[in-house]
Amino acid sequence: MILLAYASNLILAILIFSILYLFREPLKHQLGFLFLAGSMLKFVLFFILFYPVYNMDGNMESVEFATFFIPYSVGLVVETIFAAKLLNNLP
Question: Which keywords are on file for this protein (predicted)?
């Protein structure tokens, strides 16, 4: 599941940033909300794909949580840095 966690977070991070980049001009005042919606999408993905598998035994161990949380955190930091640069460069 670790490869799926990294791959899904990478794909979603690229997708979210692409959407932010495409809508940087027409929706420049709503980019923050789009960014937050992307983060919510990642959590929804976790609860649909990963949580049922990790919680099958009734106990989610820290290793299982870290399998999702580490790629999520890395993606979030990278998205935040690029989003901040994008917003700072808007006219």
Answer: Membrane, Transmembrane, Transmembrane helix
